[in-house]
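I hope you will forgive my troubling you with a question about protein structure. You will find the record immediately after this paragraph.
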Amino acid sequence: MKSIKLVTLGGGSSYTPELVEGMILRHQQLPIREWWFVDVEAGAEKQKIVVDLARRMVRKAGLDWKIEETLDRRAALKRADFVTSQFRVGQLQARYIDETIPFSHGLLGQETNGAGGIFKAFRTIEVYKDIVADMKELCPDAWLINFTNPAGMVTEAIINELQWNRVIGLCNIPIGQKKTAAQLLNLPEASIQTNHVGLNHFHFHEVWDQTGQNRTGEVMEALYGESGENREVVKNITNLDFSLPFLQSIGLLPCDYHRYYFLEKEMLADALDQYRQGKVRAQVVQEVEEELFELYRDSNLDHKPKQLEQRGGAYYSDVACQLICAIYNDSKEIMTVSTVNRGVIPYLPEDCVVEVSSVITAQGALPLVCPKTPMVVRGYLQQMKQMELATVGAAMTGDYALALQAFALNPLIPNGELAERVLQELLVAHEAYLPQFKSVIDQIKKKGIGYDRG
């Protein structure tokens, strides 16, 4: 078997120990030769801590992998076989801005939904312009596994704007949904299959067992019926009850993020209450990360600590390892990923990126036939896809008109003067990371709109 050079962009991420653990568990299927961790100057200290832990974990496992850390992305990318990405442009301070500026105007502040999600896409896609250019030059045959959020829009930009086809977008939510369904049905996880249709953080799914029986209704009743368990899948979303009659009317199970759309008033009220108490998610994550890195600094720690599961995003890194293993071994495993539509959702553009169940091969993801969708689901998906395309277009060009259209299309942002005010404040606040919008931001600042970082 050909040995593998692996590169991780965002090496200083708190998720990295889970990624290392996942690769160690699969070392017989993935002959890693060397593994490079890359970060930016602002993440250098965290990366050193995490890479030292990674070396201890690899040494404990008795493996002879070459582990390198660097701030020089180009040096790391040379002749890479797989590149994973898990970075946050602007660190947690950028997330805090994404949350608090909308909240200050009475709108939802959230990492991947609403205005915050659009701006995270703006910042991330801008950085990916140089990353993809480097990969085309230095590792043109490498696979890029992107789990940098918002994963769907970022993957859309990489494929259809930056023209890099060897990429698959990844999210941890589908695997969490499968685990939950298996527990509720009292079945082994390997004996059930989830069938997804939709977009990243806006997908729906069915559950089937190995006898070919559709168990979606049972899982729905178990989760959201009167005696349901309503289990938490995503730690960063308040676990309010979905309407069981509504879900039964569409015949599909929701993504946890659908609460922001189907329980919009209740979720906004809850989020604003947390904001007033000074408990926005960015602050919570900052506290969790401080605790994690205190653990990571312990020179005796040589395994992934259990506390990492409290960070949110559990299974992200392990699913990335599973995906790389499936590509490398051409295993034909079924996974839910962000990939090119290829017509499996016929009412969305054929070449756009969707999040659907797919067969994973050495050639990438081959999307499977999707569940039938009722009118309300089709309507939402068409609107959300157009919002994503407007966001990607604005991120690529710095076009203010497209940015404003993305805001207008987003169901969580009310149209009108307030939306434009929030858009302008976020542009100024993130000025350092949005060079594509420079001329627009200069004009906004002349009007006296600014952001107080104090």
